[in-house]
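User: Could you check the structure of this?
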Amino acid sequence: MSTLIEAIQARKSIRSFASKLVPRETIERIIDAATYAPTNCNQQLWHFIAVDDQSLKERIVNEAAGSTALARAPAVIFVTYDGWNYKEALQGASLAVGHMLLAAPEYGVVASPLNSYGSDSAIKRILGIPKTEVICCAVTLGFPDERALGAPPVPRRPVGEVLHFNTFTKKRGLPYAYNPDRWTLENLRHYQRYYCRKTFLGKEMDIMSSFERNLVKRALGSAESPLLDVFSYDGAYLREFPDKPIIALDLTKETSEYTEAAVALNVPHDSHRVTYAVYDENAQMITDASFRTAVFNYKFERLPTALATRTLQQIHAALPTDGALIIIARKSNLLLWFFFRVIKMFFGNDMRRTGIYNFFGPYRPLRLSKTLRVLRTAGFTDIHWSGYFPLPPFYEQIYQMFRQYLKSEGSSYLHRTPFRDPMSRILGWCMKVQGFMRVGRLGSVVVIVCKK
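Assistant: Sure, the predicted structure tokens are below.
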């Protein structure tokens, strides 16, 4: 029994694979184990479509808008079940998937379930799956590479948090609202601790345009070092920092590990100049390490007012007399306000339904007047700001997400390969025309520079 429990606890999902192919004999053994799962009325009406042809996997990514992880995996198993009864189909197929996940490590292979496999109808067409079958999920198979082998175990929720005896005991959960002020610091930590392990360590998770990236590079070009990147999380913007020492600060140990992996993966030649720290809200200063410039890169608008105020006070206490604080954030303008109003109208207030900027937690474009007031309260007096992009660069990403949502039949929102069509070209042209001209309060992105 202990061996079984150890195997269950040791199992983990991976998204990065060695180049070694999975032998078909190994696939057959894993599926054989799957067929020993319990099933509805012993019908065993499951099927397993193993795809190890690279061209087929790429067709699924391109034609069905499936996750690019499908093309990276040496083999993918689509698990289906006779769809005469939808509930039974999901139950029977899911039990088989569980057996697959536990059997695979016996052969040195890692099996990972994937729900963003793309459009059901397109996959059925590509793989010749009958319309009467229900696709439960895709399961990637592969041998882990060095990065996957070195990844720390994912944190697990305590049993006391998820177990209920006799009746469901309502426990205080996360708000999952767009409004940061409905979140507490502990809410954010709780959310990030688990969500930061949704994929392989170091994968860029934020949604941004090239213009928003370049604005970071422009704003920080002459910043004095060392620089403090406040709440880096996925480290997506560290590559835009000048070639100077950086302290990457995160809310939890888990997110700090993610940032460190992102640096090693995306800017390995710069890893020597980045050090890492975890935020302590009870400390007088935001970090023990000295710095001359503190930076919020599209993070300030994600913070509850209480946390934003506290971090500003700690930054002010730690900054030298001639030090600077730079906030780069999306601010509410008419077009951005209209977009979020429409989103909430159609999808409700649960941020998980759209996947828009939800990797960090809540998201709401900041209100400039309120932000300036909070900065002054924290002790900053020398404050200057500039607005950019009257047409939000964010609209380019929204259009891509909309196209992905439609093409994948609601399976996913994000696709790393952009769609190219007349509308995407029009949006791209508009972004180039507006460039980096300063437009004051008409802007959808603001750069605020403060000194003590």
